[in-house]
Design brief:
By secondary structure, this protein is α/β, with parallel strands linked by helices. The protein is 28% helix and 23% strand. Helix 9 links the parallel strand 9 and strand 10. The protein binds pyridoxal-5'-phosphate. The site of pyridoxal-5'-phosphate (PLP) has 11 residues, from loops.
């Protein structure tokens, strides 16, 4: 049985008829990659492409990164790696998430690098590779203060020793992950980095060569902690032109690569006594113009943004009224006008108005990461040169 791969847009960009769509700017992605490359100097770059490349389209972003000379790709789960292999991506790919033993044969079959997050997993990988007369490429994961997966920094020795005696494993990398590199207070991140550096020294002390790829820096650390670059960095969100938090120092200038738009499909007047939407939560005391737009929480336009969200039509911002439905929203134009087919900007700019994914995150009570990764795959992506 081969694992199924996630569904990706079934509508080809050539015949998009759906009014709601995501536009991805390839020049912006390219510019962001180059800005990061300039900042990190000689360190290798592993763009992180998990969750459909933060909503930008896994395969297309991978192809672009390959063409730009990225050194490695990072994904979260096995299926993302398999999908990339099946679409012809040949560069090295590391699956960053934890694994189960029964997944190991698939890693070997598709030549995907494996995260070994415990001695037990490492030995399982070695055995599975030996049984197939193969060598598994492995990155050892140490937990320096995130408490998610990885060998605790204070138990590093047995893992390092075990890695030195696994004949069917190539220990290509060693890594860890920051919990707080996007804060203005970097004390915890510095502590994590120190623990990571102790781990690297332990290899040397035990007479085991340090794995060549040593990595801990996510976007926050790329921006704020040049001392953490080691031999490779793993930027995610800044590649897409979004800063990981409002607190980070913006030492790399990046620009958002994604815009999200729809179109007006209905115009009407709303009169007093006629509330809008499920629960009848919004009602007018005077007649207003309104339009209906075919996007909703089923596309990833969070329902928790109800009574807060705004959109841009023409060059004017208008409020979304009533509760956000699965597939539709209603927008109050007050006395303004709009016609069927007019463009509605959900994330992006028009005239002097701009709506960022950070703003949607504030309305929804979440972080920009969650906004981007939740734009459903039913929204077709179009790529622009
Ligand atoms: C998601 C992730 C990254 C990238 O994080 P950003 O904050 O988006 O830069 C890097 N490394 C690991 C292990 C991750 O899970």
């Amino acid at each position: 049985m081969s694992p199924s791969v996630p569904n990706h847009p079934v509508i080809s960009s050539a015949d998009v008829v759906r009014p709601t769509r995501v536009d991805v700017s390839l020049p912006r992605l390219r510019g962001n990659f180059r800005a990061i490359k300039k900042k990190v100097g000689s360190a290798a770059i592993m763009p992180v492409l998990k969750a459909n490349a933060y909503g930008h389209g896994l395969v297309e972003v991978a192809r672009l990164m390959e063409s730009l000379g990225a050194d490695y790709l990072g994904v979260a789960v096995l299926e993302e790696g398999i999908l990339l292999r099946e679409t012809g991506i040949t560069m090295p790919i590391l699956v960053l998430g934890g694994i189960l033993g029964n997944q190991i044969p698939h890693f070997l079959e598709y030549d995907l690098s494996i995260t070994a997050s415990s001695v037990d997993k490492l030995l399982q990988i070695n055995d599975a590779a030996a049984a197939r007369k193969k060598k598994a490429t492995v990155h050892l994961k140490f937990d320096t203060g995130m408490e998610r997966i990885g060998v605790h920094y204070y138990n590093a020795e047995p893992m390092i020793k075990a890695s030195g005696s696994c004949d069917h494993v190539i220990v290509e990398g060693v890594y860890s992950h920051f919990a707080n590199s996007d804060e203005s207070d970097l004390a915890h991140a510095r502590l994590q980095l120190e623990r990571f550096q102790r781990i690297l020294e332990t290899f040397t002390r035990l007479g085991i060569p340090q794995p060549p790829l040593q990595h801990i820096a996510n976007s926050g650390a790329v921006l704020q902690m040049p001392e953490s670059y080691c031999t490779m960095v793993r930027p995610g969100i800044i590649l897409y032109g979004v800063y990981p938090s409002p607190h980070v120092t913006r030492t790399v200038a990046v620009k958002p690569a994604l815009t999200w738009k729809s179109r007006v499909v209905y115009f009407k007047h709303i009169t007093p006594g006629h509330p809008v939407g499920y629960g009848s939560t919004w009602e007018t005391d005077h007649t207003v113009h309104a339009v209906t737009v075919p996007v909703g929480y089923g596309d990833g336009y969070f329902r928790t943004m109800s009574h807060k969200a705004e959109v841009i039509i023409g060059t004017t911002r208008y409020p979304v009224i009533g509760t956000i439905s699965m597939d539709q929203i209603v927008v109050n134009l007050e006395s303004g006008s709009a016609y069927n087919g007019d463009e509605v900007v959900l994330i992006g700019e028009s005239g002097s108005e701009r709506i960022s994914c950070e703003e949607l995150a504030r309305w929804a009570g979440t972080i920009p990461y969650e906004i981007l990764t939740n734009i459903n795959t039913r929204v077709p992506r179009q790529y622009h040169e």
